[in-house]
Design brief:
The chain is an alpha/beta fold. It contains 13 helices and 11 strands. Strands 2-1-3-4-9 form a 5-stranded parallel beta sheet, sandwiched between helices. Strands 5-8 form a two-stranded antiparallel ribbon. A hairpin with a 2-residue loop joins strand 6 and strand 7. The protein starts with a helix and ends with a strand.
């Protein structure tokens, strides 16, 4: 851990001067040393680690009980999107004004800058959203990326890519979100290959890419690729970013094939220039990286997948989709057996 991040972290703790901290992380003593820093302050620290990689609402509510029992007046969360979303969910359900300090350890989710806490109920997405749960503080310690496994680098980076891409598509976007998203896509294009091949010189850039994409999607909201991803995650065990980018490829192809909207076609062409991909080249890259091979489902699984897409949630997609469109898109890459 670089001294500058250590100092920034401690300066925030000292400025808030909490009496009791809830430490939300996947393990009580995180490998990056932030829990140890807290212990050295003499402040009471209670760890909460009892949550899943995709946090269930029931687990988050356990965290609420711990927060209240220990009279915690500050939350520190160190980890990827799951840990940060869990911390945000705890604040949401506790109906408290305690502040959150987040230390993201992946370059992808942007959870440290968004108003959404991505939660699940028995494996089905049940997120909560409120501007009050955006962490008040974040320490962007890009050195934490050194220990992230290559697969996690890839899938979390694609999550950031999808955030930025969808922010460009979104009907809810504005000049600010478009600018943030364009910057994020440019950073992804120039740094992704080096990043997944362990070039430490681009780690800071990739964490910035994730932050910018998170800020963009916080304004614009996600579109169809995210809405299509959740059942792939639940039923096929795909990582979140993997499910999103697979969905994006075929939605991108479908829009090209079936839209007669010249403005949308211009937008899709602009995204080709921004990203350096077209749908076919992105599909090829996913296969080369081992993220995409034949996907099979039973008829029941396929119907659950089709009906699991919330049509209201994708109303901000620039090309409207009905249930027949959803079925056709999934049929482009899922074989029913």
């Amino acid at each position: 851990m670089e001294t500058k991040f250590k100092e920034q972290f401690i300066d925030i703790i000292n400025s808030e001067n909490p009496a009791s901290i809830l430490f939300v992380s996947s393990r009580e003593y995180d490998r990056f040393g932030y829990r140890e820093l807290l212990d050295k302050t003499g402040i009471k620290v209670t760890a909460f680690t009892d949550f899943e990689p995709c946090p269930e609402t029931s687990s988050v509510k356990k965290g609420v009980r711990v927060l209240k029992k220990e009279n915690c007046d500050f939350i520190v969360t160190v980890g990827g999107g799951s840990a940060i979303d869990c911390a945000k969910g705890i604040k949401y359900f506790a109906k408290t004004d305690v502040k959150i300090l987040a230390v993201p350890t992946t370059a992808g989710t942007g959870a440290e800058v968004t108003k959404t806490s991505v939660l699940y109920n028995n494996g089905d997405k049940q997120s909560v959203k409120d501007v009050s749960i955006i962490p008040e503080y974040a320490v962007f310690d890009y050195t934490t990326l050194e220990t992230l496994p290559r697969f996690q680098k890839i899938v979390t980076a694609y999550d950031a890519f999808c955030h930025a891409f969808e922010a460009c598509l979104s009907k809810n976007g504005d000049r600010i979100s478009h600018s943030l998203a364009a910057d994020a896509l440019g950073m992804f294009r120039t740094n992704f290959s080096a990043y997944i091949n362990e070039d430490e010189s681009v780690y800071e850039n990739m964490m910035t890419c994730s932050e910018l994409a998170g800020e963009a999607i916080n304004i614009a909201s996600t579109t169809a690729p995210h809405a299509f991803s959740y059942k792939l995650h639940k039923l096929k065990g795909f990582a979140h970013g993997q499910a999103c980018v697979i969905s994006l490829v075929y939605i991108w192809k479908y829009m090209y094939e079936y839209t007669d909207d010249n403005e949308l076609i211009k937008m899709l062409k602009a995204l080709e220039r921004l990203t350096g991909y077209n749908p076919n080249s992105l599909e090829f890259e996913l296969k080369e990286l081992g993220l995409l091979s034949e996907i099979t489902m039973t008829e029941d699984e396929f119907e659950e997948t089709v009906n699991g897409v919330n049509l209201e949630r994708i109303a901000n997609n620039p090309m409207p989709f009905d249930i027949d469109d959803v079925r056709k898109i999934y049929s482009m890459f899922i074989r029913v057996v």
